[in-house]
Amino acid sequence: MHKKLIVEFQQKLSRQDVAMNNKPPGKISLNLGGLKLGSSSKAFEDEAEPSTSKKSMGMGFKTFGQKPTNSNAEPSTSKPFEGMSFGSFGKASKPNETEEPDLVAESTDDMANIMGFSGFGDMKKAKQFDMSKILEDATSEARKRNAANNLALEAKADEMAKETAKALLEQKVFKEAKTKEKLDDSDSDSDDEFIGPPIPKDLKDSTATTENEKETKDKSESEESDDDDDDLTKKIPTSHEAKMNLGQKAVTSMAIDPSGARLAAGGLDFEVKFWDFAGMDSGMNSFRTIKPCESHVIRNLEYSSTGDKILVIPGSSRAKVLDRDGHQLLECVKGDPYVIDVGRNKGHVGPLTSGTWHPKIKDEYLTASTDNSLRIWLAEEAGRKSKAVIKTKSKKSGLKTVPTACTYSRDGLLVAATCQDGSIQMWDHRKTFVNVAIQLADAHEKGSDASCITFAYDNHHIATRGGDDTLKLWDIRYFKKPVKVASNLFSRFDTTECCFSPDDRMLVTGTSMDKNDTAGRLIFLNRDTFEKVSEIEIEKAHVIRTRWHPKLNQILVGSGDGVVRVYYDPLKSVNGAKLCAFRTQAKSKQRTYMSTPHIITPYSLPLFKEDRQRSTKRAEEKARKDPLKSKRPDLPLGMKGTGGRVTGGGSTLHSWMAKQISVKNKDDHINPRERILRHAEESEKNPYWIDPAYKKSGKPIFREADADEPAEKKTRTETFG
Q1: Cα(first)–Cα(last) distance of the chain, in Å?
Q2: Residue 297, pLDDT above cutoff 90
Q3: Does 202 have pLDDT greater than 80?
């Protein structure tokens, strides 16, 4: 096919060449000024042949070179091919002369396809998309799909519910049938085994009444248990009290290990005492008393999550970690007071205010200080440097502020602190502590030191004990205003504590004695309504520290009179003070001695006379003075020459050398010449050292004295005597 077309094309070209040779010479004009590619002309379409009446393409190559068929058409004044400028291509511009026929090259679709410009100039319009319509269609389809899925899930859930209800009904019917069979069997057995006359009607009525009484009793017990759940006062274990004496001053810190086996307390007298409930008797005596931080008040004590370490927060800048028995494990380093940036310091510079252990990481603990920073430490580092530093700043002014209390959340993901500007700030433990995660500016009155912040067991609520005599409950999910507020809770101490009950339904805090008060109060508040549930008065003592242990179900109170009180209930509480409260005190061991009486018989015969019994006390005193019998060690050296030991050689190298020098230099006053000549006689008799010295040089020649020489100068003593 292609070869045939090529041959036809060559033949046409040859015919055109012959025609061009026979044509008289003329001019070919090309109007380039009016050339506009891609524009179509209406006149051009009118002059096209009917066979080629297809819509003209952009460049109009379909009719290129074709002669117009309408020869009788009048000449138009307009320029029909002005847009394309192909109308006069190959024609002579002589209006008065008769136009000669031009050679026109025929155009076919096959030829255009071969030449490669069949679709040249096609103006295809780009497809336009309506995005709003597409989004509407997509959302409608998604809604339809979700609705269908939801209907399917609901139908499936209904089927499962029907199946479970059917199974429960079958199980219930089966149990009822089984119990009915058992009752029928028991009745038949009782009827079969019954021997004797029938039971009187009175006895039957009495048995029926006893069964009714049992049913009513069970109902009443269940109702009482429901009432107990509603009545919070019955959940407070305060029926019994045990006292443990710390000292004469207030108890400012208190801690109990997670298992509830040991208790530690410290106060204003700088001492820390340890009690072991399993090893104590009713005397409640401590097994160890230490003074860990010299003359610094113990502000806080805290057991680790495993109970093997105790964190001690004193009034100084260096926290300590003790083991379970009170022996020191490490002490945190103190920072450089001349370094302004606390982030570049290794430790705290100001006194500590609070501290606590991480609830999940057993070796991590947190401390707060008056140097406007919180520090996270690891026990592995032995207190040489802190793991992280948190700077506390005021939200309003941007200035530094002092953290007064700090704690971790129950899951350990948040670090929370109350500050002196009245704010509560929290940081995410998983990120860097540069930005605050949660912050509330005016949680408490500015300038009042909030003494405690603690998380509830649900990990969503926190309670803060402010220095403005308030107790506030917050929800961290809506942290704009407090959920509940309790006011008029007077406190004299900056370590007054609050805590949640184990079931999270109550809040417990203490108050101090005001001027006209005679007792401090331990107050129990309902968490939902903040109404007072119960109150315990402690005569002539402030209530400072409060702890409600979840395992023991016992309440521990540290008071201002130096006594730690433990409240418990024998029926509701477990171990703790119950182990030692009723244990009798161990009696001191008594030793009995059997002594033979000494009978004095002054007039008995010498054969039967006994020696006089003498007291051994004097003999022991005498033997004590004897250094040999008492085996007394050598006394330390006193002055020079004590006991003759220094003169006998001395106890030190210096004294021995001094003695040797003093012994050898006894003849320092002798003339040196005489000292040399005193060995002359011995050298002549035994020339062992002198003769070898003069073998090569010969015998020594001494200067002979001249008689005319003046006598040697005599000393003053020799001259005048």
Answers
A1: 165
A2: yes
A3: no
CA distance 1 to 13: 19
Say how far apart CA 167 and CA 221 lie, in whole Å: 32
Q: In the chain, what's the furthest Cα-to-Cα distance? A: 199
Alpha-carbon gap, residue 391 to 385, rounded angstroms: 16
Q: Where are the alpha helices (DSSP H) in 108-200?
A: 109-115, 131-193
How many C-beta atoms lie closer than 10 Å to residue 415's C-beta?
A: 23
Instruction: Using alpha carbons, select from 283, 348, 282, 288 the residue that is nearest to residue 314.
Output: 348
Domain end point (choices 542, 565, 581)? 581
Q: Which residues contact 110 (CB under 8 A, 6 or more apart)?
A: 5
Range of 504's domain?
A: 237-581
* Residue 524 or 126, more confident: 524
What 3-state class would DSSP assign to 681? helix
Joined together, the tokens standing for residue 485 give 């507020």
> DSSP H helical segments within 232-387, as ranges?
none
Say if 418 falls within a structural domain: yes
CB 425 within 8 A of CB 438: yes
d(CA 57, CA 39): 9
Tell me the per-residue pLDDT of 413-472, one tens digit each, with 9 for 90 and over.
999 999 999 999 999 999 888 889 999 988 999 888 899 999 999 999 999 999 889 999
The whole-model pTM stands at 0.54
CATH code, domain carrying 550 = 2.130.10.10
Q: What SS3 class is residue 289? A: strand
E strands, 282-339, are 288-290, 298-303, 309-314, 320-323, 328-331
Residues with Cβ within 8 Å of 514's Cβ and at least 6 positions away in sequence, in order, are 490
Say if CB 394 and CB 378 are below 8 A apart. no
710 CB-near residues (< 8 Å, 6+ apart): none
> Same domain, yes or no, for 536 and 388?
yes
How confident is the model at residue 216, as a pLDDT? 65
**pLDDT at site 707:** 74
* Domain-located, residue 715: no
In a domain, residue 111? The reply is: yes
33 within a domain of the structure (yes/no): yes
Of 563, 581, 599, which residue is a domain's last? 581
The residue count of the chain comes to 721
Query: What phi-psi label fits residue 31: left (phi over 0), alpha (psi between -120 and 50 degrees) or beta?
Result: beta
279 & 413 share domain: yes
Cα separation, 73 vs 144, whole angstroms: 67
- C-alpha to C-alpha distance for 583 and 280, rounded to whole angstroms: 8
3-state secondary structure 212-229: HHHHHHHHHHHHHHHHHH
- Of 165, 178, 58, the C-alpha closest to 120 is 58
Tokens of 248: 């004469």
What is the distance between the alpha carbons of residues 269 and 287, in angstroms, rounded to a whole number?
Answer: 18
The SS3 assignment for 465 reads strand
Total number of domains constituting the chain: 2
Give the Cα separation of 236 and 268 in Å (integer): 30
Query: Could you count the other beta carbons within 10 Å of the beta carbon of residue 142?
Result: 10
**How far is 371 from 166, CA to CA, in rounded Å?**
69
- Asked if residue 328 has pLDDT above 90, the reply is yes
Give CA–CA dist 47/80, Å, rounded. 10
Contact (Cβ atoms closer than 8 angstroms) between residue 260 and residue 277 = yes
